[in-house]
Amino acid sequence: MTLLNWQQQQHFDQQHLWHPYTSMTEPLPCFHVKSAHGCEIELSSGEVLIDGMSSWWAAIHGYNHPRLNQAAHRQIDKMSHVMFGGLTHEPAVAMAENLIKLTPPGLDQVFIADSGSVSIEVAIKMALQYWLAKERPEKNRLLTIRGGYHGDTFAAMSVCDPVNGMHHLFKHALKNQLFAERPELSYWHEWHDSAADSLRQWFGQHHTQLAAVILEPVVQGAGGMRMYHPQYLRELRQLCDHYQVLLIADEIATGFGRSGQLFGCNHADVIADIMCVGKALTGGYMTLAATLTHRHIAAAVSDPKAGGALMHGPTFMGNPLACAVAAESLAMISEGHWQQQVTAIEQQLQQQLLPLRELAAVTDVRVLGAIGVVELEQPIHLASAQEYFVRAGVWIRPFGRLLYIMPPYLIEADQLTRLTTTMAEFVKSR
Question: What is the pTM of this model?
Fold first, then answer.
């Protein structure tokens, strides 16, 4: 096959490659990337874009980071992959050791998964097998809150918002789960006890069926970029303990500092029974995720009454190349520089985005950690918005009515100003 130039590659892509949530008959604009360094993405057409998306929360250290590059180079010369069935290796051990040190106490049993969605599938299996071991097979449903997003595989889809989520087309093929109303109080409102009344009713009526509750701590990501009150998590933890229901924290988007705390649950000083991480686990270099739980839960899952083993085993589980990069990324996180970086980003986002609340086209502006969200009155036309942002020299990908950024932590102040200024100009042009 002859080598194609970038324009030919772009045309081939449009004709043959499916992109996330896109039509093959009416494809969206797709821009050909030549390279990426730091907080910049260089297109083959010559434009250099300041990245406001961290490749969907993942590239927290930016692109082409020398430490992560070196970790990848060192490992690939030894082996890029070896099966994890019956074998182990230094990268997996180092990654798990670093991960356990960072995560809340007690979460020291680690299942290494391929992706965030797979880690959710594994968490659900853990919860179901746990109750089989306890001889409570009737506890086989999950409770979640509306507005959530947990992935694109089938069990994960079953706990995504069934009405306003991206997977309503499949509702007749999915397990019928339970959906509580989304938390009504935002992160910044004063808590009042009645805000948890609905949640208490759900537990009171359905706890005998519930294997687990699953939710994104404090920040609902792809389901609407909403930040809710941390006390909601504390109330939920108490209800789970009282009614003997497991708590699954989906920290795939919120983990590793994005919300201003190392993990979303840290805002409420809550420890989940099962926790899922992904996205930023490798610093955005390659796909990897993990599901962590406590030793007593792992022991129950391993009980012969529950099958005697956790019933999951991906081909590329524990991939050495991904684990080596993840171990280095976790080492960088443990050094703590992210705290000052995220604090500086939050302060600048507050200063530059919160004034947009005064604009007629804006419904709300929300800033938490390294997350800045401008919610508009009307939906954003993605294709034209994407072309607008590329012309302005930034990479921002809105969805629905949401214009948002979550930049790499090492972004410079002037680069962040370019992002927020462009957001403001886009809103004012509507």
Answer: 0.97
